[in-house]
Design a protein that fits this description.
There is one protein chain. With about 120 residues, the chain is an all-alpha fold. It has one domain. It is about 80% helix and about 0% strand. The chain is built from five helices and no strands. Helix 1 packs antiparallel against helix 2 and helix 3 packs antiparallel against helix 4. It is flat, with a radius of gyration of 16 Å. The two termini are about 10 Å apart.
């Protein structure tokens, strides 16, 4: 069963992410930039805390990668005439991380009875 405290951090992380993206949509540059740090910090913390469970680890790595892409894209739109999008695309390729989990690791876990 998931630790209640970690679940609270996960819910708080969603709030931080929504605030960051709301700042982006409202073109609030400084608050948007400020929100990158706590949003990424909590995502990295959650990734570290879930590292013992492979499925959680892979999904949290994907979230951190997505947040990096999202933040780079936002910074590019705010300050660089949207020229940073190619860099953001590199981080967006997180689908490869999740695919590798579902193609290679998850089937092995199912065979040995791990979930």
């Amino acid at each position: 069963m998931m630790n209640t405290k970690l679940r609270e951090y996960e819910n708080f992380h969603i709030v931080l992410w929504l605030i960051k993206d709301t700042c982006w949509v409202l073109d609030l540059k400084i608050p948007g930039l400020i929100m990158i740090l706590p949003t990424l910090a909590v995502a990295i913390y959650l990734t570290w805390k879930h590292r013992a469970v492979k499925s959680e680890l892979f999904h949290n790595i994907a979230v951190v990668s997505w947040l990096c892409a999202n933040s780079i894209w936002m910074i590019g739109e705010f300050f660089f005439d949207d020229t940073l999008r190619p860099i953001a695309i590199v981080f967006s390729s997180i689908v490869i991380i999740l695919l590798s989990y579902y193609i290679f690791i998850r089937p092995k876990e199912k065979r040995v009875g791990a979930v």
